[in-house]
Amino acid sequence: MSVAPAPRSAKKKSARPGGTLYRGNTGMWSWVLHRITGVAIFFFLLVHILDTALIRVSPEAYNAVIGTYKNPIMGLGEVGLVGAIIFHALNGLRIILIDFWGKGVKYQRLMFWIVVGVWVVLMAGFVPRHLINVFSEVGN
Amino acid sequence: MTSPSSSAHEETKVIDGVHYHQYDVVIVGAGGAGMRAAIEAGPHARVGVISKLYPTRSHTGAAQGGMAAALANVEEDSWEWHTFDTVKGGDYLVDQDAAEILAKEAIDAVIDLENMGLPFNRTPEGKIDQRRFGGHTRDHGKAPVRRSCYAADRTGHMILQTLFQNCVKLGIEFYNEYYVLDLVMTEVDGVKRPSAVVAYELATGDLHVFQAKSIIFATGGFGKIYKTTSNAHTLTGDGVGILWRKGIPLEDMEFFQFHPTGLAGLGILLTEGARGEGAILRNASGERFMERYAPTIKDLAPRDIVARCMVQEVQEGRGAGPNKDYVYLDCTHLGAEVLETKLPDITEFARTYLGVDPVVEPVPVMPTAHYAMGGIPTNIKAEVLSNNDTVIPGLYAAGECACVSVHGSNRLGTNSLLDINVFGKRAGRYSVEYAKTAEFVPLPQDPAGPVRDMIESIRNAGGTERVSALRKELQEEMDRGAQVFRTDESLGQVTDTITKLREGYKNISIHDKGKRFNTDLLEAVELGFLLDLAEVVVYSARNRKESRGGHMRDDYPLRNDEDYMVHTMAYLTGDASSEHAGDHIKLDWKPVVITNYQPMERKY
Amino acid sequence: MSTIEAPRSSPTPARRSGVNWEKWGWIYMRASGVVLVVLIFGHLFINLMVGDGVKAIDFAFVAGKYATPFWQVWDLLMLWLALIHGANGMRTLVNDYASSPRLGGVLKGAIFASAAILIILGTLVIFTFDPCPAVPADQFSLLPSFCPPQ
Amino acid sequence: MAAATQTLTAADAFTITLIIRRFLPDVDDEARWESFDVSVYSTDRILDALHKIKWEQDGTLSFRRSCAHGICGSDAMRINGRNRLACKTLIKDLDITQPIYVEAIKGLPLEKDLIVDMEPFFEAFRAVKPFLIANSTPEAGKERTQSVAQRAIFDDTTKCILCAACTTSCPVFWTDGQYFGPAAIVNAHRFIFDSRDDAADVRLDILNDKEGVWRCRTTFNCTEACPRGIEVTKAIAEVKQAVLRGKR
Ligand SMILES: Cc1cc2nc3c(=O)[nH]c(=O)nc-3n(C[C@H](O)[C@H](O)[C@H](O)COP(=O)(O)OP(=O)(O)OC[C@H]3O[C@@H](n4cnc5c(N)ncnc54)[C@H](O)[C@@H]3O)c2cc1C
Ligand code: HEM
Ligand code: SF4
Ligand code: F3S
Ligand code: FES
Question: Ligand 2 centroid to B168 CA: how many Å?
């Protein structure tokens, strides 16, 4: 056992500090989601601006690309996207309330569940309609 | 990165793997006393503070109730009354010159802390609020007085934080997680003089020699000689033990305070401030039994008395619980408001550790080993004495490890936070004064040698005994035989056990042979100090054949001023680890300083 | 064992130039967020919910929108606010996760460049857009109905 | 006497499994998990279980502790994935049908077993000027006055014991050890809002920095980890507002 100790300052091989996953609560997980959705939206936005820019090229080119948005697979993707935007937006408002409203900190957890609730309601309004639109296309 | 925290450590020499440092003043211990001294000394000299814990981990942070000072912010008060209470509380074994200083300088001590930033609770006028505490009375015992300055029930926490903050402000150099294990004495002209301390760096296992002109010991108490205690695991009395082994006498070691209200079975403290706010002790039948014992101030009688009454209630069969082995602290009538605002921490302790909510139920309590009145003998300049009146130049002690003696045979609540501030400050001041004119005492050859030998012999010991088992037996035996009530017989049994444990200690082994953060090794070292101190406590207790303050002898139930109105001085005369205490401990007496108050019967 | 550096390895705070980007970035995220809620939800609602939803989106639909200054301003605002918001958010992520300052610099550069290019591109598109471009006759039906016959 | 002991909740001892993330720098190259069975009472704390292991099974197990009742801040560690003080975590509050995972707090350099290098943490603390800076000198021998209400504003943040449970629960701190971290902000808050202090601006300026309050993403891990029940995120929010609008 009495191995000569490494000098304290020597850089040791980095075992990731890691260990188990930190078991955060709603606050941490809502942040994780906020972050993931934010990044997802950002990359979508890059693409979306490029495709919209095609209207400057020609109607045909634009319609060709936008047409792909109408296929069922993209339709499902749009559900995901809209879900992400709604969550990000609602949770963004929750964060803003935490920052600027005196009682925001106290009610942050409640507000998270409200975000979830409103998200469910909005998605319930959007998803069926959207899917009908998307899939009715297939029939045509 | 190594532990010294302020970046400004000077380059140190390393010779044969031992690091050498030089400071004008070295302070051992970063609790309340150590840091108060550092703040006083820091601006005037090169000061290094060595602590086995990060400063904010020191046990001063656990103190709850308050710090006494006759500010008279809420009602009439005077430092003379405070002096009297201190003397009477200590059952007249208090050195009255020191008690006068304590009470007089208390006022400045509190104001100093406030000015440093301590967030005391406030009166409606914005002044420091004060509350009642055991044994503190108006006009020589007429009625309880509001004298304790407090910050909720975390006064010690606030003191520790405030002192640490101010050390940061002053850029005090700390060596954290360095265990001081030896005081180096060099023979100069035939006299042994302190020249340095030797510390073991926990992180690396390296040894450091700190040479200094003045050395202050502020290492706190040693409650871990007992099992049921309010003290931290780290309060193993290293500082007191080190000086003991160097032949410095120890004063009044038989006086150990048992705090009445420890959480039953656990020892975690519930502050006397609770009773200060009006909480009541009750026995199994709900009777407020303190009315019988101390009709005037009832539950606010000094701790020794209350603790004794509690044990008596239990012994006479009036205890509560399935085993009838505790009494109740009833806070229910205080209301949630008072508990949450003035006593939030203890409310939480009861909830967390016993699952009892003080707002609605009484809390099971029993006395818990709390405070060492005795320790390293010092004078009012915090200078350490080598006998009844000889000062050891350059050596200082303050705080719980020291015995000035302002607490006599029983400390009043809130007087210890006061002690660490008043005498910590004095230690700082006088140590600098001394360092200004003194020269470094030269180091002997290989000053770290003895510590290296001790460490290596423990590290390589191939015995069969486990340190933890020995320690457990010591603590249980002390609880059994040297607690609130003791007799010659019970103390004799403890003595025998200690003798046996000493044998065992020679035959230990440890698991961890490594260098870095070897707490296994340090626990073994600490046990050595615990054994030494427990032995002195028991030996001194056996010799005092009377009952006084914290020392209650069932076989000698009365105070005996004729024979025992004197401090005990224990001297090491041989090998501290030799088998029989009688081989190496010699007891002597030291007169008590009396100025104004002649001993009287102690009634409340 | 994680090898992190001591906090603020440089003892003095890094920021010493005039504008405090961290603070304004933080404020911007919140301010733009509030506005974006309106803009994006409006956008989504019009595009995906009204009428036949996504199915109805084609050149004619978009051109129809961009023919009115109202939607021009709407989309322009959305473009700027969202891209800056997103890019600033991505910058935060890079600050959090980039293992070396150099990698961080490269990534932040890339984010900045892509956002800048797309903002310029998008702005140009919105302002130079002609809802009734000259098209071959077979594509005439793709144009919005208000276009004059070619 | 005093052995009122466990009678209060006289339960029998039972065996639990602790899986501890070990790292002995003298022998290990990297951290590893090791499992221990230990006999405890339901009223015991995780600290008691760790002590039992150290004292009865394996003396090399290393961790910091002192007060044993949640007041000194020595023993913050990650228990079942969350930062807690071992001495304040009762066995009965955990699910003992499953093994209990114990590991060092995250984001500070691991030194040995459950011990991390606390220096970066204290460095951040020192950097916010955590001490009273008052321009006025109080009347000699007198306290500065402060109303009960003024005192109440910063009461919460005076409770901090510098245990680091908050800072090492913060996802921003894990990925970027440069962030001041919640504990430093809490201690800055304690002085920024102290009516006796005159240097709020200095501290706000320090925290109005790339690594200051703006890094906080309101994940609330800190608030949930704080063994003293300090509303850490709220304190941070108050500091943010103070940076924006000035102190109050
Ligand atoms: C639970 C509790 C509540 C209390 N409540 C009150 C109260 O309300 N009012 C009151 O007046 N008193 C109270 N007391 C008593 C008072 O708190 C203590 O007596 C006092 O704080 C002791 O301070 P100190 O500075 O002497 O020691 P400590 O604060 O214990 O500090 C000791 C220091 O020495 C260091 N040290 C020890 N050994 C070594 C070594 N070998 N090498 C290096 N460093 C070492 C430690 O690291 C530590 O920094 C209470 C005590 C307890 C336990
Ligand atoms: C719909 C309205 C939106 C609102 C209310 C909103 C709100 C917010 C807020 C308040 C933040 C700061 C979070 C924090 O500091 O912790 C944020 C971060 C972020 N937002 Fe948005 N946002 C919206 C739309 C968008 C869009 C359209 C994008 C993509 C382009 C986006 C991408 C991001 C990213 C990448 C982050 C950084 C995430 C992080 O640091 O964890 N957001 N958003
Ligand atoms: S704020 Fe709470 S968790 Fe953070 S260091 Fe202070 S006491 Fe520990
Ligand atoms: S965990 Fe970190 S992100 Fe903010 S709320 Fe606490 S500091
Ligand atoms: S040991 Fe002191 S906080 Fe846990």
Answer: 39
